[in-house]
Specification:
Pfam families: V-SNARE, V-SNARE_C
Subcellular location: Membrane
Distance between the termini: 135 Å
Number of helices: 6
Radius of gyration: 52 Å
Region (Disordered): 88-124
Biased composition (Polar residues): 112-124
Transmembrane segments: 203-222
Order of helices and strands: HHHHHH
Length: 227
């Protein structure tokens, strides 16, 4: 059940009831054509009010039982009040009861060909009210869709910006890795050069030591063994 739809129908009912509840008293104070017009107006509004109550009952059938029980009581009170107004109108304006005809399956009085046109106008008004409600619901749905689209667009923009920042971070990281690789290559070259110089220095040192040993051996030989 749409609680929003039920509340709208409830507001329409209250507005219609406020309009017709004083008509029986007014009918006592008027005569002739004015009374006839008042009777026709009452019948039109009474029919509209009854249709609104039917709509409320349809909405209420789909409601949870805890909600339905309380509102069913109110709907019975509305039906009772509406029936009392109809009886008061018949008592205030005898033409209301004498000129009405009951067709099979009909809930409302039909007074004449003029009243048939009034009934058509009543149906058109009910359809117009229903169409207005449907249009309002569609407008609200469109507004919600537009808000969701705007929020989605904003989220998409934020994601794109975040991805752009992450790409920049990845580019900077890649550049740092490239620089680190270059530095490592230069370090390896330096280490290889140092290693070669170290080996060369060791060889030179070994040669020098051998030469010194040879010279020392020659000196010892010449001094002690050669006579």
């Amino acid at each position: 059940m749409s609680s929003e739809e039920f509340e709208k129908l409830h507001e329409i009912y209250k507005s219609l009831y406020e309009e017709i509840k004083l008509m029986p008293e007014r009918a006592l104070k008027c005569h002739g054509e004015e009374r006839k017009r008042l009777v026709r107006t009452f019948d039109e509004r009474h029919g509209e009010t009854d249709e609104v109550l039917q709509g409320m009952e349809e909405e209420l059938r789909a409601a949870p039982s805890s909600y339905r029980n309380a509102m069913s009581t109110k709907l019975r009170m509305y039906r009772r009040d509406l029936g009392k107004l109809q009886r008061d109108m018949k008592n205030s304006a005898p033409a209301f009861g004498s000129t009405s005809q009951t067709s099979e399956g009909s809930r409302h009085g039909i007074y004449s060909s003029e009243n048939q046109q009034s009934t058509q106008l009543q149906s058109q008004r009910a359809l117009l009210l229903h169409g207005t409600d449907s249009l309002n619901n569609a407008t609200q749905s469109i507004e919600r869709s537009q808000r969701i689209a705007a929020e989605t667009d904003q989220i998409g923009t934020d994601i794109i910006e975040e991805l752009g920042e992450q790409r920049e971070q990845l580019d900077r990281t890649r550049n740092r890795l490239v620089d680190t690789g270059d530095n490592l290559s230069r370090s390896r070259k330096i280490l290889r050069a140092m290693s070669r110089r170290l080996v060369t220095n060791k060889l030179l040192l070994a040669v020098i030591i051998l030469m010194e040993l040879a010279i020392l051996g020659a000196v010892v030989y010449l001094k002690f063994f050669r006579r």
